Amino acid sequence: MMQHMTLMQEGPINTLALNRDCNKVVVTGRNVFKVCEIKDTGFVERDNIRTGKNSNLNFSCNDASWNPVDEQWLATAATNGAVVLWNIQKSIKLKQETVYNDHKRTVNKVTFHGSEHNMLLSGSQDGTMKYFDIRMKAAVMTFVSNAESVRDVQFNPHQCFSFAAVSENGTVQLWDLRRQDRCEKQFTAHSGPVFACDWHPENKTWLATAGRDRAVKVWDLGYRPVLEHTVTTMASVGRIKWRPQRMYHIASCALVIDSVIHVWDVRRPYIPHASFNDHKDITTGIAWRGSPDVLLSTSKDSYLIQHVIADAERPMEKANPICVTYNSKGSLTSASVDRNSKKNKHPTLPRKPKLESEDYPAVRCSIYVFENVKPTPAQVFRDCAQNYWLQTTTGKSLSEICDHNAVVAANAGRLQVATIWRVVKLLFGFSGLEFAPPSAVASVGSSRPVPVNKEESEPGDSSKDASSRAGTRHQSGNVAFPTQQTGQQSEPLVNGSGSNNSNSAPTSNSNERGVSDTSGGVSEEAESEVEDIDSQIMLSHIASGSHFNTSDFFFGDAEADVLNDFGDTSDSVQGSKNSGETDQQQQQQQSSQMDWILPCEAFQLRHEIKDRSPPPEHFTSHCFAGTRIEAQMVEVEDTTSALLCLPGSSSSLGTTCWSGVSNAVEMVYHMAEEGDVQTAVTLILVLGDRIRHLLNEAAVEHWILAYIDCLSRCRLWNTAALVVKLSQCESVQLRFDVYPTHCNLCSRALQRRGWLCDSCKTITNTCSLCHLVVRGLYVWCRGCSHGGHLLHIREWFARNTDCPTGCGHVCEFD
């Protein structure tokens, strides 16, 4: 029963080598050179070759190889460039048999032939390989690799005259011992230096290589080198060894950083089959002990360790059994372990048990693919670019363009962009709305001057003047509340609450004291009472919310209908008064009329003050007779709050209302910051001068160029040309005024102004249909560079969509 064993040495160990029976191992290093016997209980040291006073650099070894046929011979590669042959059966002082000093630099590798015990091969840092016959005192052949260094050499166990060599320039060379002038095959295996190679013990054409590019590659050298498998590791690989009796298993150790030994299944190259992490420093040598279950290794931590595969860690058991991925089209693929698979319960004939390498990928998985039926972002971009309206010069209004673009965005699934277009319509789509004259527009929250009367009074008609003044002064915006006259008295006006003002004094030709105006003019008290009634009714209108101006506020598309209904209701109320309806019916109609108005005052207005102080004595009533009444201005505080002001409307005092331009600019910058240059550029082109002066020209140019680049990638040439036309950027228009032409054969840009290609020396302006040179107007496609006569191309695309040359490109002809 094999077990885990360790043996510590005096210093770091560089390599190890096993004998033919795999019961002895030699470990070598700069200060270590020992032969140990492997027993079931542990390692037993047999010979320490480095003892004695005559130790020199020949005892410092980089590599060692035990003769597989004759166990008495051992070869080592010294750091001083010597290849030393040792006879293990002799005494310690006589063990050094022969020293070969044919190499000029350090020897990296030595190896014996698998069947010929006299054949020895070495590879050195000087870029040469030496073939030795141990019966002779010098090298028999020299093979030059034309590389800076040879890092590993291995005899082919299936062909006795062939060997492989790997170099630091990343190449692999196959040599024949019978021909030393050149190699039989040479190919580049890695992107960096190759440090190790190993022939497969069963497959005659497989060669494994490992290098600095952190990869172990398996090559099939049957007819020509073909890469069969690639194993990716986390560090540069220094040593590799195929696992005996396992077709797809190979062991590797790192040259730097990683001290773990991994056993890989080349069919599953990303997760090791087994791992040994007993060493604390870099592993320098590995060898299978003639069995697939036992592995020997040495390290710079001075330990020789025997590993048992049963004690190895299994990274696959710790791996996540579920994985999910998706492609560029939005399709989702998931793989998971199928734990519900039922085993076959029916009895079957006995068969040969499977090997471990065959059982390794025995995990049964289920793969589910979910295809995306929704359009991809690229398709959404293409659909929006093709269907957006970008200009108002086509006879479409801004509102129609916003509605169309909102529908296009909503159909493409971009609901946020569709909402943006609807908001833009609300902010800027009021071209058909009629504004009130500036005299009728009052600033919000400021004192509103209201004209009292500008008519002339005539003698003998004071009641008419008073009633006309009351009817003209009691106005709020465009909505008037006229007073009704019956004989010499006027009906009381409807206050803001919708009820009759019973406390208001009627308008008449006599004052409250019973003194009539004999001169036919207007008495002072009557004029004062009329003004008080007007002021009270005005304040009542303001308090009740009925004092508003349609040109100052905008509550939605149905405002005009509400105001018309309100005017119709006022007319109906006036008609009901004329027809003799009762006060209760009038009150109910007025209440239903004003139900939608919210009061703006927190407190009710106080009642009218009846007891007034008399006017000054020098203002007598006769002074007004036969004179012109001057227009008076009553300052009324407008406490109504505007919810939305119409774009472009301003008060009579010159105050500019909110127009929404700043919000549109913020939307453009927000969409650009989110990466949606399509929406940002489209908003700029549609709104034009409304927001262009508030944007940074450099940023606008950058967005337009990015959008044109995206359109070019999607081959939307017509849309890109339209964007360039509407961009209003000179740099953009100058940049895209000239379009490069390409050859329709070699696809290279034409250098001359003509249609001759300097690369393939052909004329490129031949018609794709009649195959004649076009001498007039030449129409060509920027996608495939094919074209022809305008008439021929027009007739062709009237019936077809593909290119007439048969190249398969779907040309766009507009």
From TrEMBL:
Disordered: annotated span: 334-355, 439-531, 566-593
InterPro entries: WD40/YVTN_repeat-like_dom_sf (IPR015943), WD40_repeat_CS (IPR019775), WD40_repeat_dom_sf (IPR036322), WD40_rpt (IPR001680), WDR24 (IPR037590), WDR59_RTC1-like_RING_Znf (IPR049566)
SMART domains: WD40
Biased composition range(s): Basic and acidic residues: 453-467
Domain WDR59/RTC1-like RING zinc finger: residue ranges: 762-812
The entry's keywords: Metal-binding, Repeat, WD repeat, Zinc, Zinc-finger
Keyword Mitochondrion: no
Name of the molecule in the record: GATOR2 complex protein WDR24
Source organism of the structure: Daphnia magna
